[in-house]
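>> received
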Amino acid sequence: MSKEREDEAEDPEDAGVSKLGWFITGAAIGAAVALLYAPKSGKDTRHYIAHQTEKGCQMVNDTSKDVADASREMFERGRKLVEDAADLFERGRKLVKG
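>> returned
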């Protein structure tokens, strides 16, 4: 099989998964090296990581609440539009009937 046909036969999803795997591996290695050469003590570093994780969790929680609120608001708007459309349809039907 020629080189061109091998490239065509490669699944794009497999390539994406492979790239993601290498990215995660690189990120893990980078994090390990950063911890090994950190200018702070282990206790300070653990405290910093715990604090940043807590901050990140809080941000995710706040963002998810904002998204939920926005979704509820859009749902209510959509429901109102459907009710208005049904009302208009009913009026039109009554006009056509006479």
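>> The helical segments are 3-9, 12-36, 42-97.
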